[in-house]
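Ligand: nicotinamide-adenine-dinucleotide. Inputs:
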Amino acid sequence: MDMLIGGKHVSSDDLEEVKNPYNGEVIDTIPIAHLQTAELAIAEANKAKDSLCEMSAFKVSNKLFDVVEKLKDNREDFARLLTLEVGKPINESLVELDRSIETLKLAAEEAKRIYGESVPLDAGLNGKGFFAFTQRVPLGVVAAITPFNYPLNLTIHKIAPAIACKNTVIVKPPTEAPLTVMKFCELLNDEFPDGVVNTVTGYGSEVGDYLVTSPDVNKISFTGSITTGLMISQKAGMKKVTLELGGNDPMVVLKDANIDKAVKGVINGAFLNAGQVCMGVKRIIIEDEIADEFAEKLVMETEKLVMGNPLSSDTTLGTLISEKAARHVEETVNNAVKEGAKILTGGVRDGAFYEATVIDNVTQDMDLVVRETFGPVAPIIRVGSIEEAISVANDTEYGLQAGVFTESYSSAMKCAQEIEAGTVFINKQSTFRTDNMPFGGFKSSGVGKEGIKYAVEEMTKTKLIGLNLR
Ligand code: NAD
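Predicted complex:
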């Protein structure tokens, strides 16, 4: 599939194969863009700014709604392609499509709500006789750099609010899974002036870096790993940057918790998308009294998951993004076992598949839980009190989301207030998001928020206009 720049298809001398992680078959090829291509995309995005700004909010909103309809019409095709390139079960891909449609709809609605406010200058010294108001003004060109795990919805979380508030966009999709994003940009391009949305494929270290450092790109909206995010923030200079980075989300299970509910939370939180979820349950921190019963039930439910062809609707556990990624998870789990952890179920790799794995006797200093393990692994850390649970939950450089299971109102509030995370859910695992909520982590998990209304705030600047009526 070609890149889309200024409304035209653009290729390159260098091509990269996009492979299905399930069977290694080549799905398509993408061009590897070099710096000149990135430069062209920046020029086209800048050229298109005026034509987008000339459109009324009414028209932008309607056009986004038209894209919603097109995406709905192509829901199954997009889901199939997503499964082929990511290896996630088809039912999960259909959910990603439904969320993508919802995200786009929210942006189409938000396009009509880009409000300013009146400002009472007469409340300040010498301000009497002025009338003043603010406007939210687009930043210009937004570069959207996105990861492989939820490529479509996470990219729409950037493109859609950017266009809703009249920024043009350059998308750098993930190299491993770029196709659904590129196909979606074609749909968008049919509705908007050429150059409003552009795609540049290639290696992040080359084109991504170029977009980040270019003075003609006004904002970087990045979702991906902490390592890349840190590099971007160091290079972006005075540019506005939003960073949605990794997570190491705790699930705190207190002794008065509803165990069945918590077990279900782990199944939906640790194994979704083969554990490749930023807000996945990555550490189960549980009070000793109930840990044995919980572990037994968790093993029973985990063993019901069906690993297999991701295109089959019976499959509930697909592959990881690559065999290399699965090998990395295997090595991390094996190291934890060498240090004293005990596998209760799973622990076996087959190509890019890694079995859903429950691992007990994990301690907080093991690499498995110090770093973000991006695979279908549920590590159990046993603790003796609520205070210890909170302290272990906070003993990490990450702070994306958290889940707490308890039937006690006061324990729930204590955890909610003391756990350092962008979101704390009570009686729900961290792996939950609606696309309108403010989403974004504390600590090294990120800077800024997404969730359409919040993304719009980060993609506009405030201008004050004051009239001297004296
Ligand atoms: P990654 O950081 O390797 O890559 C993300 C994107 O950055 C890709 O498009 C890549 O090509 C590009 N990139 C790489 N080097 C770059 C550079 N030097 N300059 C600019 N761009 C560059 O991440 P990944 O492996 O694709 O995704 C997994 C990570 O993303 C995990 O850590 C996960 O937790 C995180 N993630 C976070 C969220 C969130 O919303 N907080 C959501 C999904 C995934």
